[in-house]
Amino acid sequence: MSGSQEKLKPSSSELDLDRPNIEDYLPSGASIQEPHGKLRLSDVLDISPILTEAAGAIVDDSFTRCFKSNPPEPWNWNVYLFPLWCFGVVFRYLILFPARAIVLTIGWIIFLSCFIPVHFLLEGNDALRKKLERVLVELICSFFVASWTGVVKYHGPRPSMRPKQVFVANHTSMIDFIILEQMTAFAVIMQKHPGWVGLLQSTILESVGCIWFNRSEAKDREIVAKKLRDHSQGADNNPLLIFPEGTCVNNQYSVMFKKGAFELGCTVCPIAIKYNKIFVDAFWNSRKQSFTIHLLQLMTSWAVVCDVWYLEPQNLRPGETPIEFAERVRDIISVRAGLKKVPWDGYLKYSLPSPKHRERKQQSFAESVLRRLEEK
Amino acid sequence: MGNSSSMLTQYDIEEVQEHSQRLFSQQEIVSLYQRFCQLDRNAKGFISADEFLSVPEFAMNPLSQRLLKMVDGLNFKDFVAFLSAFTAKASVQQKIKLIFKVYDSDDNGKVSFNDILEVLRDLSGSFISDKQREQVLTQLLKEAGYSKDSYLTLEDFVKVLSILFMFIIIVFILLFSA
């Protein structure tokens, strides 16, 4: 086991040294000086702090930064490096990519020729069938990882199959699931996707036990919470893997964890995943590319290098709310993977913030005005 | 290599710089262009209202709708010109002019009692009653030498606000001090 007990510090390329750490300077809500003294017309007319906050948000904001693709720095900028890079491109697209595609196809053939018979012939013998399907899913995931020349270093004890435990991890791309699945067959909770991914979800992943949700349906949350609870209580279900961020983040930041995974009454085992950007940026920017294009991009790059840390299982402490528990686990994962925490809900990618944030600002303004009205 | 600043030529940068009274350095304009391209998702050349609102910090701001009217559909040159009022180097006159424009929603050069009341409503929401807002504003106007029926012009704003300590834009200074 590698000596990965040292505290992980983000490397300088991740710290963006040519820009200061903006989180230290963003106003946290209230304006920087609390005005006092008797209320005058100028105080009411002066909206400059609020305007400045808005302009600051337009210029840069910590939420959009979480979803910015950060491709590796170009290095092909001079006369002898450029031909080398061109050679690299040719090699990657014309030699590596076909070779990988062949490996992947072979993998699929082996997988399907084993999976389909096992699935149908062993219909009565559930326990054996489950075991075999689990092994086969781990196999096809290994083939996938091989098809991008994935170099994955696992740290920490391998997860054990025990009831009443769930696994949580930070989320960068759907390949997170494949990388983790290669080691241990997890059951997963995922957004139902259209296209060939959806087909895979409803056939093969069904065999390891998966739960679907639909972000756009409001009532969905209670149904899903119940399914989660039922699954985690079952003794011979595969351990459940949850990505509490709810959306893909660019592996430099972590957004708020949803509390659903933390109120199941189970032990939570955190997993931290960190991709090394030196060869490829593994962040799946779902706004910019479909999953197919993302996979193709991975298959035409040199390698996908990442570290996976299985961290110490955590339990809800007495007197701790699920939200505090979620934050504590997010802290553990962010420190291990060198991620900066931002206080935003990942679902803001898909919807506007709730009016209560604006109302909070309005309330503090109103209170300040009314208070100063009383002062002489 | 895929970096959007390669699409801005030196001429473009200088033109934008001139248009915003040289309040931004060339480095800052390049950074602003990267940000502009990041917000303008399908490279239309302007940022639409919903793209502005996709920035949660902006959407939460009580004055976001008013500002949206001013920035919606601006091309990059005008976008930079708009933001130039927020730099530390901008004159107090320019900042007050921007504040005036936020109040003067019908753009007729005069700010009425109702205009100010509407902005106050955006700022305080349901936490002060309409009646109380009117009372407070009438009293403040009287103390400053105006009446409920007076129309404030830009000069009046300058007179009232120029004594004030202007909020220094720390974010901008540190953001661009490279």
Automatic annotation (TrEMBL), chain A:
| Region annotated Disordered, chain positions | 1-21
Q: Where are the transmembrane segments?
A: 77-95, 102-122, 134-154
Please state where this protein is localized: Membrane
Mention one GO molecular function: glycerol-3-phosphate O-acyltransferase activity
Going by the UniProt record, its keywords in alphabetical order are: Acyltransferase, Lipid biosynthesis, Lipid metabolism, Membrane, Phospholipid biosynthesis, Phospholipid metabolism, Transferase, Transmembrane, Transmembrane helix
A single Gene Ontology CC term: membrane
Q: Which domain of life is it from?
A: Eukaryota
Task: Show where the Phospholipid/glycerol acyltransferase domain sits.
Answer: 165-276
Q: Which pathway is it part of?
A: Lipid metabolism
**What GO biological process terms does the UniProt entry carry, in alphabetical order?**
phospholipid biosynthetic process; triglyceride biosynthetic process
This protein's record includes keyword Membrane: yes
Biased region (Polar residues) positions are: 1-14
- Which InterPro entries does the protein's record reference? LPCAT1-like, Plipid/glycerol_acylTrfase
Coarse class of the protein's main subcellular location: membrane
- PANTHER family in alphabetical order: GLYCEROL-3-PHOSPHATE ACYLTRANSFERASE 4, ISOFORM D-RELATED, PHOSPHOLIPID ACYLTRANSFERASE
Name the family the entry cites. Answer: Belongs to the 1-acyl-sn-glycerol-3-phosphate acyltransferase family.
Q: What is this protein called?
A: LysM domain-containing GPI-anchored protein 2
Organism of this sequence: Hibiscus syriacus (Rose of Sharon)
Automatic annotation (TrEMBL), chain B:
Q: Keyword check for Lipid metabolism, yes or no.
A: no
Q: Which UniProt keywords apply?
A: Calcium, Membrane, Transmembrane, Transmembrane helix
Q: Where are the transmembrane segments?
A: 157-176
Endpoints of the signal sequence: none
A Pfam family name for this chain? EF-hand_5
Instruction: Name the Gene Ontology molecular function terms of this record.
Output: calcium ion binding
Task: Please identify the protein, giving its name as recorded.
Answer: Adenylate cyclase
